[in-house]
Design brief:
Layout lengths: L10 E8 L2 E10 L5 E5 L8 H5 L3 H6 L3 E5 L16 H15 L6 E6 L1 H12 L4 E7 L15 H11 L3 H11 L8 H13 L1 H13 L17 E7 L7 H10 L3 E6 L6 H4 L1 H13 L1
Parallel strand pairs: 3-4, 3-5, 5-6, 6-7, 7-8
Antiparallel strand pairs: 1-2, 2-4
């Protein structure tokens, strides 16, 4: 990555109002393009916009986009929150407030992974005029797989990590997160664990949220036909968190959707196959 593009140099905060209360959110702001691309991360403990997408930022900036990486409420440097309703809708409302706060009125392209894909769909349904194009990986409907018992192996391991954040539980989760776990370094494990332990309030609040409402990410399958944005669905054939057939529901329901399936790929397509993912996404956004 360009040495000038660092997490620290691009770090920003904004305070929005959610349910009548102030909520301080962290984001990274990179590039100065006329069009904006928003990157929304997944729900794993210790996740952040930068950690999820650091392999994808520079190609988007070089293609002429302004890139915003939002840390959703309850993750990384953003404030914690207990979600008693739909977290997908909560994240969509927060993104809408952030864009308003930054004075971004033009439609934005949204790239979402896992929880981020659910949030992107929720945003597209609630604010259709604010969406350019969607790129969805490993999530988006919240519906069940027709072939794999739910909750999946990966979702169970995420739950175990939230309840008991140890390096062993982290390694168990990450071993099924990607197709080839040998690519994960001890440094990555230790950094991710440090991120998790730095904000135990996030862990506690997510567990409380699940207790208050186990369906944090509701099924939007019956509403996908309302989405008019051109959509690129990207999935890992070997995803053990959200199985491939869930992705097929997206292209069945969204009229202007197309799909790319990566072989030998788990739940983290933008990281595992970054060299092919990046030009594919840049091409899609620019068509």
């Amino acid at each position: 990555m360009n040495n000038a593009i660092t997490e620290e140099a691009t770090s920003r905060f904004i305070t929005i109002t959610e349910n009548g209360q102030p909520l301080r959110l962290h984001y990274n702001d990179v590039g100065q393009g006329r069009q904006t691309v928003v990157l929304l991360h997944g729900s794993g403990p210790g996740a952040s916009g930068w950690a999820n997408f650091h392999r994808n930022i520079e190609p988007l900036v070089q293609a002429g986009y302004r890139v915003l990486l939002l840390d959703c409420p309850g993750w990384s440097k953003s404030d914690s929150i207990v979600s008693t309703g739909s977290r997908s809708d909560l994240n969509a409302r927060c993104l809408h407030a952030v864009l308003d706060g930054l004075g971004i009125a033009d439609p934005v392209h949204i790239i979402g992974n896992s929880m981020g894909a659910h949030s992107a769909v929720a945003f597209a349904l609630a604010y259709p005029a604010r969406v350019g194009r969607l790129v969805l990986m490993g999530g988006g409907t919240g519906g069940p797989s027709q072939f794999v018992p739910m909750p999946t192996e990966g979702i169970k391991l995420i739950g175990a990590l939230y309840r008991d954040p140890t390096v062993d539980n982290l390694k168990r989760m990450m071993s099924v997160f990607v197709y080839d776990a040998s690519s994960l370094t001890e440094e990555l494990y230790q950094q991710r664990l440090a991120n998790i332990l730095a904000r135990r309030d996030h862990l506690d609040n997510f567990v409380q949220s699940l207790q208050a409402n186990p369906r944090q990410f509701p099924d939007y399958g019956h509403r996908l036909g309302e989405i008019r944005a051109r959509t690129l669905v990207i999935w890992g054939r070997d995803d053990r968190f959200v199985p491939l057939d869930v992705g097929l529901r997206l292209i069945w329901g969204i009229a202007q959707a197309e799909m790319h399936i990566f072989n030998q790929c788990g739940h983290w397509a933008q990281w595992e196959h970054a060299q092919r993912f990046n030009p594919m996404v840049v091409d899609f956004l620019g068509r």
